[in-house]
Amino acid sequence: MSTPTMVDTDPDVRLSSPDEVLRPARTRRFRPGRLVTHLILFFMVALWTLPTLGLLISSVRDPDQLAISGWWTSLATSTISDQSPRLPAADAAVLENGIYVIRGNLLGDDDNRTIATFGGTATTSGANPAGATIELRAGGMITVEANGDYVWTSPTPFEYTTAPRISYVASMAPRFTTENYSTVLSANGIDRAFINSATVAIPATIISVMVAAFAAYALAWMKFPGRTIFVIAVVALLVVPLQMALIPVLRLHNEIASIFGVPGKGYFAVWLAHTGFGLPLAVYLLRNYMVGLPREIMESARMDGASHFQTFTTMVLPLSVPALASIAIFQFLWIWNDLLVALVFLGSQDEYVVLTGKLVDLLGTYGEDWNLLTAGAFISILVPLIVFFSLQRYFVRGLLAGSVK
Amino acid sequence: MLDQALYAIQIVAIAVLGFIAYYWGANWVLDRSLATNATMSHETIARRDRRRTRIRPWIFLAPALLLLAVYLVYPVFETLRLSLYDRLGQNFVGLSNYQWAFGNPADWFRSATDATGAPIIDAATGLPIVLNQGDPTFWRSTLNNVAWLIIVPSLATAFGLVIAVLADRVWWGGIAKTLVFMPMAISFVGAAVIWRFVYAYRAAGTDQIGLLNALVVAFGGEPQVWLGIPWLNSLLLMIILVWIQTGFAMVILSAALRGIPQETLEAARIDGANERQIFFGIMIPQIAGTILVVWTTITIIVLKVFDIVYAMTNGENGTQVLANLMYRWTFISGDSGRGSAIAIVIMLAVLPIMIWNIRRARAAEGAL
């Protein structure tokens, strides 16, 4: 937010500059508080962006750090209270210079943790700084270094049946990793769900755009009785809630499928359902666009003896590419993001479950495992975000055509 | 995994080719069966041409009409019918599903006990009277839906308008708009995860990982289990939808603001109007029609809101809404009668908007 650039491009200043010589006071009066504008807008944009940013950052954080500190502290060192695995059994001790010694490391080798304090019980984990030597209830003295190495010594042989644990407080350097993604992809079936989502969304988008384009052309340029009634009916159907359709259509699917001896749920069912539910908007938008195409083009094509089918495929379709793209993006995003239709017409078994369904599943099973949830959520919103950022122009155009008309 | 992908590509190809084959094939059959050539009489040619022109629109329309009829028109009537039948849709039960939901209007404002708390005895039967005030969860859902209907469209439209106006005044307005618009691309379920993380709770004394609780603690408050607090939790769910829909409102309203003639604004400025007067006196009235359209569009989305509640709380702790209640009754409890009755209630709420839309479409078509 550099102030000079801001003033240069400020339309108000440019518009009012001729007046400035005559009425400087007034010009100054109706210039709004520029800084306030910037600040308010910045605050609102931050409010709208931070939740998603938090998700993205969290999804690449170390799972342990993610669970105990906020994502906004992800560049700072975090502290973690933990307990070591049990120390080795008593017979692991070796005799060195007349004393019994057990050596080892509390942290294991993969770690970026550093032990700050430790103790023999959970309540004393903060009592002794790293490097100190304390007495253990199981016998002997133990020294724990910051890197986790410990030396446990006793003048007499160790005698215990259950090996003790050491509680400690460790600090953890910030660590970023893709392991959340690999975990959620391989262990939780997100990869399968991703393909399922694509299997649902791509054909359903193509089919609905194709069906809508033919219908829209007929409603825009062909003459037949009842055309206006169909247009009005499409407008009316725009707002019919999806909830109405669930029970009757599922029953119908089951009945028809039972005739052929196949299950009523499945990809074919969900494609048709999505196509049906998306049709009113698609037909409405495309028809509005096609009606606006120049009449002369249609008429000259007809003069040349082209049938409606030829006019449609060779002239109207190529001319309608922008509108078709808008609709296709709309449909794709809507289908990819849908939960209800897929849940009802496809089911939630692993074989069929789509990304949104899988995510709800994860929410239920791993409600607090934010490493899995954040990575899973980001995978599910990745495709829509790519589509959105690369094709935003068409998306906006479609929105405008759909609501301002 | 590769198998699954290949299988997917295969069935995708078959389905899409099937539809292409229909359109192309049907047209081919029509052209062949009613073909004309120079050896035919003029009458035959004219008749065949007429017939082709009459039939072809229906080839174009047939798949769309069939799908619309099966997936949207038939369900409206079938749902209406099912709402008058029992849980399995076998026996006619009249309005009893609606009575279950709404109760008996005569009982709404009565009490089953008198002032002392003793049950009131029915004089005719000698038994304590039993009131039917409807299903409490249904009423709570309805109430919640009304709250959603008031709060979400107003906030989303207001925020959208403010951002649209402000973004037009700064050089980074384009970036600002893209960022505010982005949530539109995110699924309701994805948004639910994002916001569950914002509302996450950790016990007092430990570091908070949720943004909201971290802020509360930073200002000296106690961390809260936000989604467990009645009424506030509903509001927190609404915020998610506001977050998503503000971008929509902003884009539409921004385009409408651009459509206001520059001369109008300039004239007002020359007349000495200040920015506030220009905003409320000129901009708002000029785009009032668009504001209404944005408002109704968001209203329809709100009435159908399901995913957010389903994923966040599943209607627990008093956050139930009609769409999720309908899903529960139909698919969890297996009662298509009550589920259908709830669906009809949602439909009735949408009806005024549908009628308004039809009016506008008729005016635009200039017919009927």
Set out the fold topology.
The complex is a heterodimer of chains A (405) and B (368).
Chain A: H1 3-8, H2 11-22, H3 24-29, H4 34-59, H5 63-68, E1 78-83, E2 94-96, E3 99-105, E4 113-119, E5 128-129, E6 133-135, E7 141-144, E8 149-154, E9 167-172, H6 179-187, H7 190-221, H8 227-237, H9 242-260, H10 267-291, H11 295-303, H12 308-319, H13 321-337, H14 340-345, H15 355-365, H16 370-390, H17 392-404
Antiparallel strand pairs in A: 1-9, 2-3, 3-8, 4-5, 4-9, 6-7, 7-8
Chain B: H1 2-33, H2 42-82, H3 96-102, H4 136-167, H5 173-181, H6 188-198, H7 211-218, H8 232-258, H9 262-270, H10 275-286, H11 288-303, H12 307-312, H13 322-332, H14 336-365
- Measured as a percent range, the helix fraction of chain B is 55-70%
Considering residues with a beta carbon less than 8 A from a beta carbon on another chain, report the largest interface and each chain's count.
A-B, 127 and 125 residues
- List SSEs of chain B in N-to-C order: HHHHHHHHHHHHHH
Q: Give the tally of structural domains of chain A.
A: 3
Label the overall shape of chain A.
elongated
